[in-house]
Every structure is written in structure tokens, then in C-alpha cells.
Sequence to fold (380 residues):
Amino acid sequence: MKAMEEKILAEGQVLPGHVLKVGDFLNYRIDTDFISECGKEVARLYEGTKIDKVLTVEASGIAIAFAVASALHVPMVYAKKQKTSNVSDDLYSASVHSYTHNTDNTVIVSRKHLSAGERILIVDDFLALGNALNGLISIVEQAGASVAGVAAAIEKGFQGGGDALRSAGIRVESLAIVEQMDENGIVFRK
Amino acid sequence: MKAMEEKILAEGQVLPGHVLKVGDFLNYRIDTDFISECGKEVARLYEGTKIDKVLTVEASGIAIAFAVASALHVPMVYAKKQKTSNVSDDLYSASVHSYTHNTDNTVIVSRKHLSAGERILIVDDFLALGNALNGLISIVEQAGASVAGVAAAIEKGFQGGGDALRSAGIRVESLAIVEQMDENGIVFRK
Fold:
């Protein structure tokens, strides 16, 4: 999506440690008109694919996932993060390592919010190593549902998470794929 | 909003301790078409009022705030919650007591995401005692911005937070006001 690449070049900021700051339009401060357009673009890419529900994880995934689910006119579910690994019987859960914060979280979804046989589109703001998305894929599988695909606003191609999912046969659509970034600038995948 | 009252009666669940569960359409699992309609209704109620930005707090406020901000075509900012009270210089912060979890959180917003002179609409899923909203109001004031109004999807009228804000001269619009709820049912404010 050309508009996403232009937005990243105009408003994004590259920091040391493979950090791309886009908090002025994608998280924290959300450019609602732009994110709504992103939602429509993901819906267009998945046109003709059966999708029953959109799944994301709090908090930074919620806005983009809401925009995608609105454009698809399907419900959206978000997983909650908790520090403890104590999980009650009425929840699906997966352990997720955060590269950014070097912590482990348990992500949880109520059993009543995912059903066997459903086709789930997993959406997140970033796809880097893919740890969070792999946790969500595990939850979808625990529910007996299946992954219709993955969509990310921004993929850090050089961290490999997206390509690992593609190799595993999962459809991944990212609105922009950053192949390289440093103090000299940002290079997108063609 | 009649549709919100009907939705609460059809899908809400009253639990002991003044808990109203609406996790099947308002939080966790989000009925995107319905929440988009709620966003449009809030925008309609505030028609003619100058609003530069929508402010909410993660995580359950994000979806409804995104819907409101989309309908108003303004950006949306969400405050983050943190357990510690350590706050860096580039943040506005306020302490918020959670009645539900009996914990204190610090809510934070980057200084660059709110500007002096802006008119801010504060949006949240629930308005009960008003603790979270009062924290957001404090942050708006710290930024030298002003509160254009408050909007909540559901107000628990019997907990008094909304009426306290109204008494303080703040405009509050709630899409449904629960006056009373128990095992016998739910009574809305006329």
C-alpha cells in the first residue's frame, strides 16, 4: 500500500535497536481517517475469502483490527495480556515473548468468543519476529477454528516473522514491508 | 440511544457487585457494525461543537473511541496504563483508582499528543464512579487543552460519576444510563 509507505517515510522515526516509531499515526495517536483506509485495503486484499471474525491483541492492535473488521462487517475479538500464567478453564491462552520489553506475557481469549469451524483473520499493527501472532494462531487452533490469514499494518521484513509464516503456508498481507532501516533511511520490499 | 438499551437488555448480564457484563459486544468481542453506529450517534450529539481530538484510555475504550473519532474525522489518542508511578518528563500523567480491581494505575499520555488550546472529547466504554475520566480530565488540563465533553457507551447512573461531572459543568452524553440493576432486571434513566 503506497500510502502506508509514504506515511512511514513522512511521519515514522527510526531509533536504535530496530525500533520504528509510528506512534503519531498508528498507535497512541491514531490518524482515524488513514487507519480506516488501511482497514478497507486489508478487506479488499481478502475479498472473496471467507472470514468470520477478526482477532488481535490489546492494546496497539485494537484500532487497526477494528478498522479491518468494520470494513469486513464482521465482529472483532481482542486477546488480553496478563503477567501471570494462571489461566481459568473458560479461557484459551498462549505464552508470548515480547522482544521489545524482554518479558513473557500470557495472552488470553474467552472460550465463548471463538468457535470451532470459524475462519479467523489475525490482524496486528506490527509483524516483526511474529511472536504475538504465533500466540494468536495457537489460540485459534485451540478453539478448533482456522486461520484465514494474517494482516499487519507494518512488517519488519528483516526480522523474518512474516516470511516464516508464509513458509508455513499461512497467507500474510502487510501494508508495508520494511526490508532495511537505519540512520540513512528506510528501504521497502518491492 | 434506544438501540444501546435494547442491546444491553438482549446481551448484557448483571453480576453481583454492580457488574454489568457486555463483553460480547462492547469489549473483548466487539460488534463492529453496532459500535460504528454508536460512534455516529455520539458525533451527532456533539454536532456543532468544536472537537479537535478524542481521548480515551487503553484497552476497553479504544474501539468505541476509534468509532467516535472516525465519525468526527479527528485523531484519537489513548492513554496507557502503568503500574508504577515513575513518569518521564515527556509525559502527562494522572493516578487512577480502579474500583473493579482495587488497584491504582498511573495513566500516561505523551506531551506531543495533546496541545494547548485544543478542544478534547473524552470517550470511554463505561462511566461509573468516573475515576478514569477524572484522570483523563486532569491530563487534558495539564496540557492546557480543554474538555469539550465526555461521552460514554454505558453510564452506571447509580454510581454517581456522571452526575458529579455534570454538576461540575462538564457536558456528559451517555448512550444508555443504567439507573438500577439487579437479578430482577435493568432500569434505564428516562
Notes: The radius of gyration of chain A is 16 Å. The interface with chain B takes residues 23-24, 28-33, 35-36, 58-59, 62-63, 66-67, 69-70, 73-78, 80, 109-110, 112-113 of chain A (CB under 8 Å). Helices of chain A lie at 2-11, 32-45, 62-72, 131-142, 161-167. Residues 32-45 of chain A form the longest helix (14 residues).
